[in-house]
Structures are given as C-alpha cells and as structure tokens.
Amino acid sequence: MTSLGQLPLDSDTASSLLPETVMLVGLIAIVLIPNLGDAKFRIPLTSVRVPVLLGGSRFNMTNDPRMPNRISNITFLVAFLSSLVLISESPREVGGVLMADGFSRIFSTMFLGALLLVSVATTHRIPAKTKAPIPEDSDSKATVDRKISVLIDNRRQVDFYILLIMVGLGMSMMTMATNLFMMIVCIELASLSTYVLVAFHKESPSGGEAGAKYFIVGSVASAIGIYGMSLLYLWSGSLDLDVLRESWQAMDGVDPFAAFGIGMMLVAFGFKVSAAPFHLAAPDAYSGAASPISGLLATASKAMGFVALFRVLVIITVPEGAEALWMVALGIFAVVTMTWGNLAALTSENPKRMLAYSSVAHAGYMLAAFAVVGSGISSTEESVVILTAVTFHLAVLVLFKLGAFLVITHLETEGKGHNIEHLHGLGNRDPMIAGSMFLFVLSLAGVPPLSGFLSKLLMINGIVSTSASTGSSDTSDIATWAESVDPLFWLAAAIVLNSALSLFYYLRIGLVMFFEEPASTKPLKAAPSLRMAIFACAILTLLCGVGPVSEWLLDLVNGAIDSFMHQV
Questions:
Q1: Which is it for the CA torsion 210, 291, 402, 185, positive or negative?
Q2: pLDDT tens per residue across span 232-288
Q3: Cα–Cα distance between 528 and 17 in angstroms, integer?
Q4: Alpha-carbon distance 359 to 353, whole Å?
Q5: Which residue, of 60, 310, 343, 483, is most buried by count of CB atoms within 10 Å of its CB?
Q6: Closest Cα partner for 348 from 357, 338, 336?
Q7: Phi and psi (nearest 5°) for 278?
C-alpha cells in the first residue's frame, strides 16, 4: 500500500472516493480533450517529428463545441451512479479529515443528481452549434448580434462546465468533512464557482448585478463564519468535530468563545440555506442567473448548507437531555423565515423570484425541525425521525423545485420566463410541460399524494410527536391545553399555516397556465433532453410520494441518518 501524505492510496480508499475521482478525471478531460490536435514536436538536430497531440489544428471530433457538454453529462452520470451504489457501504475514514459513510453519500447523490439535471438542461440553455456562421459586413445589426451570441456560447462551453464540475467536487467533498477547516475549504470551493455561474451571462445587466450582490453578501457571510471558526479553535485547540463535541460537553456554563464561534458560523450557514434575514441576496441571484443555476442554488446549494448545520449543530452542540443554546433563536428564525418567504412570494411577478422566496419558506420549514432536535425534549428515536424527514425533504426538493426551474429554462430558450405573463396559456401551447409545472408547484405546496406532501407530513409528525407529548391530555379547555403544550408545538402549526398561505401563489401559476390566453400560440421548442429531464422529475415527484419508490428512498435516508447518529 502506498500513501500520499496522510492519505492511504489503497483499493478501499479509491473505491470510497470513486465519485470524486470520476469528477477529477472529468475535469482533466474537459480541459485536455477540446485541445487535442495534430501538433508535433521536432527533436532538435533531427528531422524527426513526434506527435504531442496538444495544439495545432484540432481534430474534427475534439473541435465540436458540444464536446464539453457531453463530457460533463457523462461525468455527472457516472459519479451519480457510483455515489448511489456507495450509500450502503460501511463507513470508512479517509485521511483523518474525511468520513465516507451512508450520510455523506446520500447527500453527494443529491448534489450529483441536481448537477446532472443542470448539465442536461444547459444543453439547450447555452446551446453549442457546429459550423456557427461568422458575421459579415452585409448582415443587419440583429443578424450580427445573433451570430455573435452563438459564437460566444460556443466559446464559453468549457468554462461553464469546468465551473460546474468544480461545484460538484466541492459539495461532494464537503459532505465527508469531519474537520471544520476542511468543511469551510470545500464550501468555498463550491461557493466561489457558484458566484461565477450566477454572473455567467455577463452580457445581461441582471446577470452581472445578481453575481455582484451574491458575491459580496456571500463573501461577508463566509468571512464571519471563518472568524467564528477561529474562535472555536482558540477555545478548543482543535477543529475536529469529535474534539469540539467533547469540549462542548465538558464546558461548565457558557464560554463566550464557543458561543460566539457557533453563532458566527450560523450566520454563514444561514446565508447558504437562505434563512431570514440572511436571504436578501437570494431573490436577486435567482432572478438574474440562468434558470438551471437558480435551480442549483435552490436545491444542491441549500442542501450543502444543511449538511453544515447537521455537522456543527447536531454533532457539536446538541446536549443530552438539555436545551441547546441556539434552540430558541433557531425557532424564531424558522417562523420569520417561512412567513417572510411566503408573504414576499405573494407579490412577486417574476416566476424565478417567486420560486426564490418559496425556497426561503422551505428553509424555514426545515429550520423548525432543527429547533426541535435541539430542544432537549426529543429522544434519540424522535431525533432520528425528524432528521430523516429533513433529509428526505432535501432529497425530493431536487425533483420538484429543480423541475420547476427546468420548465422556466424551457421558456428561457425563447427569451422568456422572467415575467408571470410568459406562463399565460402554457397549457394550450404545451400541455405536457404545463402539467409538469403544475405538478411541481402542487408538490411545493404540500398537496397529497405528491412527495412534497410526504416530506412535510414527516416533519410535522416528528415535531408534534415530540412536543405535544409534554402537554396536558385534557383538551376540554383549549386555553389550558395550549398553555401546557411545549412552545415548539407551534412550530408545526406555523408550517401548516404557511403551507396553506403558499397555496395562493402556487395555484396562481396553475391559473395563468390553463385559464389565460397565450400571447403566442406557437408551440415551445422541441429541446428533447430538457423535456426528458422535466418529465423524469415529474414522474419521480409522484412516485416518491406514494408506493414502493417512496419507501425505498425513505429506507435509504433512514439508514443514512442512523449512520450519522453513530457520530453523535
């Protein structure tokens, strides 16, 4: 067995890091393959020329501007399948700072699935065309602009997919981190690439503005989180999660370094999950970025923030039989976040902005569940149920939230999708796409029998079964019963009320799609791969709500949470 520093390079380690290895190979391939050509090197003082392949006139196959997209699709597909297979593998520590187990693999599978859908959707959102024409002097201004746009899209194919694979590498490595420094490095690897992707369409004024806002706010949030991490290091002398947990349990009273350190890290993670009041840059980022990237922010990026909350809050700070310091604050943030998100979405005329505020509301639902885990009244079994519900919600959110953004991506291929009016009459123009969109928004609202209903039901059931058991069993006097019930019970009530509130703007989308007259009767573009991605999301949104597929997914998630709880 050989080693690289502290990382053993044996077959077991290689298999544990197979998804990351696949992405690394894909990253190298996406840089090298498009540059392969007939270049030759002449050996000095001889006439012998040796092929070096890099440079010269590129081969016909490697000169195809669609090649980066194909490499990206294959990379994410193979990485996704390998991560899915590794979910049931036994835990394995890698290099002292990584832990490959069921918990890390369930989240890396989510991330890679979302990135695969984004890569497929970008085939049509940033299309690459072979034999793109060059502008001529006789062309009109509109024709010149169109030809230049096609050439620009061809030129930046490699850049886009390099950034996308870098996001995947950062997210996947982050799920395995058992050291705060490693976790922050991986988060920033994914985040810095995401900032560029948000502003990737720099020719669009909204894209540049969205990227600048998201970068500035995200950088400040990351700086606060890193400063909090430094306080934890000063307090404990280590950044390993196990050492920090032992130090936290041995703490007598409240140490300011520990409390402020955790609080500052919550600011950074609050930005990642779009929790109020750290969500203010999210709506601008979602509306200014291309829809596939907006969908990535609303699903994979949000899940990455919740993985960090799992690691920091549950592993380090959840006490045994006592209330966590952050429980009350997190409960308040949860109610404010879900209410603020839904109220803001009610007045939005931009579908992407509406879905952005919807994403804020969903962050509030999951934060409410986290607050119950830190309440000190939940048993280990109840905590497993609640954390399983949160993880299941994050998993199915990839289907119906990203699916909704893929429908808007379809509209963006014809220059629309930035106003609610662009959805008018979609049911007449393309009934299958409109039906899929309606399915997605109903699942976001939590309507049975869709997967969004099941995930919300599991969260509400976990909160109610934990908190309501503390109240009086006599319900004849409502006032007495309400006073006796633990305050966390009202978090479940807040989720129910906010879900009912969200129906207004979700059903509005269905109303304008099926009952408004379209501005154009022209059918949507064919976009076959994008359509396949939308229909796959729609079918799985239904299957993950009822039947054996939902049971299989719940079993996977429950096994992953059991693996996680062994670390607590």
A1: negative
A2: 988 888 888 888 888 888 877 777 888 888 888 888 888 888 888 888 888 888 888
A3: 33
A4: 10
A5: 310
A6: 357
A7: -95, 10
Rounded (10°) CA dihedral 268, 270, 273, 279: -110
Between CA 20 and CA 28, with CA 22 as vertex, the angle to 5 degrees is 105
Per residue, what are the HEC states of 415-467?
A: CCCCCHHHHCCHHHHCHHHHHHHHHHHHHHHCCCCCHHHHHHHHHHHHHHHHH
Backbone φ, ψ for residue 34 (5° rounding) = -65, -10
Structure tokens at 464: 């109610």
Please give the C-alpha separations between residue 305 and each of 12, 272, 279, 539, in angstroms, as whole numbers.
Answer: 29, 5, 13, 27
The CA distance from 267 to 68, in Å, is 36
pLDDT in tens, 45-68: 777 888 777 777 777 777 778 888
Calculate ∠ Cα 468-472-478, nearest 5°. 90
- HEC-encoded secondary structure of 528-543: HHHHHHHHHHHHHHHH
User: Quick one: how far is CA 23 from the chain centroid?
Assistant: 17
173's CB contacts (< 8 A; 6+ apart) are 20, 98, 182, 186, 189
**Quick one: DSSP state of residue 468?**
G
By the 8 A CB rule, do 396 and 558 touch?
Answer: no
Residue 495 CA from chain centroid, whole number: 21
Angle between helix axes 451-467 and 351-373 (nearest 10 degrees) is: 30
**Three-state DSSP class for residue 37:** strand
Gap between the Cα atoms of 165 and 119, Å rounded: 10
Tell me phi and psi for residue 241, to 5 degrees. -60, -40
Handedness of CA 382, 385, 387, 390 (dihedral sign): negative
pLDDT tens, residue by residue, 154-192:
788 888 899 999 999 999 999 999 889 999 999 999 999
Give the DSSP H/E element, type plus range, for residue 51.
strand 49-51
- How far is it, in rounded angstroms, from Cα 538 to Cα 442? 11
Question: Which residue, among 470, 461, 471, has the nearest Cα to 492 in the 3D structure?
Answer: 461
Rounded to whole angstroms, the Cα distance separating 394 from 299 reads 7
The sign of the CA dihedral 409, 412, 418, 424 is negative
Say if CB 392 and CB 458 are below 8 A apart: yes
SS3 552: helix
Query: What spatial distance separates the first Cα and last Cα of the chain, rounded to whole Å?
Result: 32
Distances (CA, A) of 288 to 83, 214, 342, 404: 32, 10, 20, 16
Question: Which of 248, 242, 299 minimizes the C-alpha distance to 274?
Answer: 299
Token duo for residue 79:
């990485």
Taking the C-alpha atoms of residue 568 and residue 564, their distance in angstroms, rounded to an integer, is 7
- Can you tell me which residue has the tokens 């520093």? 5
d(CA 164, CA 158): 10
The DSSP bridge pattern shows strands 40-42 and 49-51 to be antiparallel
Note whether 516 and 427 are within 8 A (CB). Answer: no
Residue 217 token pair: 């706010």
